[in-house]
Write a structure and sequence with these properties.
The protein has 253 residues and is of the alpha+beta class. The chain folds into 2 domains: 95 residues, Phosphorylase Kinase, domain 1 (2-Layer Sandwich); 122 residues, 2-Layer Sandwich (D-amino Acid Aminotransferase, Chain A, domain 1), CATH 3.30.470.20. Helices cover 28% and strands 32% of the residues. Strands 8, 9, 10, 11, 12 and 13 form a 6-stranded antiparallel β-sheet that branches. A 5-stranded antiparallel β-sheet has the order 1-2-3-7-6, with helices on one face. Helix 1 packs parallel to helix 6. The radius of gyration is 18 Å and the shape is globular.
């Protein structure tokens, strides 16, 4: 399918004008970033893997009645999605202490939490995506109280689905983040899961060994990122046949 006008380019994806009104083509890049893009590299095949993995998760959510922006995969690196109005929040669901939460609260990484915890961060790279409470979100008009109630319900359903799928292939879902978009049908508005769901946006640990199978491999220099993502795809049965993990990343200057 011929590419059209570029709408937006982020750290890991490019959005192009779609073939029909209300659609976009989402292209997955091989770029890897960490620490708000202070650390960058190109990981050969990463975009192909994330395209297939996000297709797998979004399709599964659609099938159980959790609405997403995903329509279909177009090719190895592109998928057709609905155009949505993105709420400027990252919705984070945590099942175990890790990353910034472990540092903030002095918790041991991997410590189970009493229940899944939903947090919000304001999407602004220049500010470091700061955590924000519900009061800020409502006061600044980013979302209403009803929106937040619906977002929590969506996020917990996504958590139930992802946790079950990962448990079935011997992977522990530590935490993940999603984005939520608004879709308008005339005067009616509904919220849908948008952006992507992939090892870029989840923390995934092998249940037996504790091996990290997510972007922490890149953040913390723990090995080959493409191999880790390939292992997730292999276990889920969505391994692209023509992807060979690169032996090492190519750094971006």
């Amino acid at each position: 399918m011929a590419r059209r006008k570029k709408i937006y380019e982020g750290k890991a994806k490019i959005l192009y004008e779609g073939p029909e009104p209300g659609t976009l083509v989402q292209y997955f890049k091989d770029d890897a970033t960490a620490f708000n893009a202070e650390k960058k590299a190109t990981i050969e095949g990463k975009g192909v893997l994330n395209n297939r993995l996000s297709e797998f998760f979004m399709t599964g959510l659609n099938q159980i009645g959790v609405p997403t922006h995903f329509l279909k995969r177009l090719n190895m690196r592109e998928q057709l999605v609905r155009s949505v109005e993105i709420i400027p929040l990252e919705v984070i669901v945590r099942n175990f202490a890790a990353g910034s939460m472990a540092k903030r609260l002095g918790l041991e990484e991997g410590q189970p939490l009493p229940r899944p915890i939903v947090e919000y961060s304001y999407k602004d790279d220049a500010l470091g995506d700061p955590l924000v409470p519900e009061e800020y979100i409502i006061a600044f008009g980013w979302a209403s109280q009803q929106d937040l109630d619906d977002i929590v319900a969506l996020a917990l359903r996504v958590n139930d689905f992802l946790s079950g799928v990962m448990y079935g292939v011997g992977i522990k879902l530590i935490d993940f983040k999603i984005e939520i978009g608004r879709v308008y049908d005339g005067d009616f508005m509904r919220l849908v899961v948008a952006d992507e769901i992939s090892p870029d946006s989840c923390r995934l640990w092998d249940m037996k060994t504790g091996r990290k199978l997510d972007k922490d491999v890149f953040r913390r220099d723990l090995g080959n990122l493409a191999e880790a993502y390939t292992e997730v795809a292999r276990r889920l049965g969505v391994m692209p046949s023509n992807v060979t993990p690169a032996s090492k990343p190519t750094l971006i200057n």
